[in-house]
């Protein structure tokens, strides 16, 4: 893992290593495989941040008879949420009677998660489950609890492994947190 990095003038320090991430991806994949092994699930990756997690997770789950789709919602500007959830790219897949797993990078306030689940339930799936790489329950405004959580963290701004700051940092193998006291 690299040491400190700078993005947009902010200093970030190591937070979660790629080996820790891989370990939790395997655990979450095993839980999903256990729950949906006899299903033909639809995995819905939430763009842009969840694409790295979704790719690793879906490959690790190993259910061959699945499909993948993508949605994009937005609620962040810079390092904070606006509280306003907008759908930027919607689903075109038929979800009726299907088992759906939404794959998200981070659940912060829960507003986006609740909106996505509502939108997907309107499409009459058999079930809707929610997997997230990171969960910040202390930031919740909704009380939403994901079905599958890789890491529970404090409400700090992080980047790497798909998560970004104004589009930067998604390519990092590890997850970083803003260094306290110098920004």
Spell out the key features of this protein.
183 residues; 6-stranded mixed beta sheet; alpha/beta; 3 helices
Quick gist of this model?
The protein has helices at residues 18-36, 51-61, 111-121; strands at 5-7, 10-16, 42-47, 67-77, 80-89, 99-107, 127-135, 148-152, 158-159, 175-178. It has 183 residues and is of the alpha/beta class.
Give a verbal description of the structure.
The structure is a single chain. With 183 residues, the chain is α/β, with parallel strands linked by helices. The chain is built from 3 helices and 10 strands; from the N terminus they run ββαβαβββαββββ. The strands form 2 sheets. Strands 5-4-3-6-7-8 form a 6-stranded mixed β-sheet, with helices on both faces. Strands 1-2-10-9 form a 4-stranded antiparallel β-sheet. Helix 1 packs across helix 2. The two termini are 22 Å apart.
Approximate shape:
globular
Low-confidence stretches: none
Q: What percentage of residues falls in helices of 4 or more residues? A: 10-25%
**Rg (C-alpha, Å):** 16 Å
Instruction: Supply the helix-strand structural class.
Output: alpha/beta
| Total number of helices | 3
Give the spatial strand order of the biggest sheet.
Answer: 5-4-3-6-7-8
Give the beta-strand count: 10
User: What is the average per-residue confidence, as pLDDT, rounded to a whole number?
Assistant: 90
Percentage of β-strand residues: 35-45%
> Sheet bearing the most strands, described?
6 strands, mixed
């Amino acid at each position: 893992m690299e040491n400190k990095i700078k993005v947009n003038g902010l200093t970030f320090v190591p937070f979660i290593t790629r080996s820790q991430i891989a370990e939790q991806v395997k655990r979450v994949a095993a839980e999903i495989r256990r729950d949906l092994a006899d299903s033909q699930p639809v995995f819905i990756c939430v763009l842009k941040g969840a694409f790295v997690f979704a790719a690793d997770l879906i490959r690790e789950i190993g259910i061959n008879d699945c499909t993948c789709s993508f949605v994009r919602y937005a609620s962040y500007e810079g390092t904070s949420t606006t509280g306003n959830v907008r759908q930027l790219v919607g689903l075109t897949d038929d979800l009726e009677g299907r088992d759906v797993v939404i794959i998200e990078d981070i659940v912060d306030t829960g507003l986006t998660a609740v909106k996505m689940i509502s939108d997907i339930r309107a499409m009459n799936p058999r079930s809707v489950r929610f997997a997230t790489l990171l969960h910040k329950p202390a930031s919740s405004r909704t009380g939403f609890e994901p079905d599958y959580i890789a890491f529970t963290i404090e409400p700090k701004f992080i980047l790497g492994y798909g998560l970004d700051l104004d589009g930067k940092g998604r390519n990092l193998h590890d997850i970083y947190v803003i260094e306290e006291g110098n920004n």
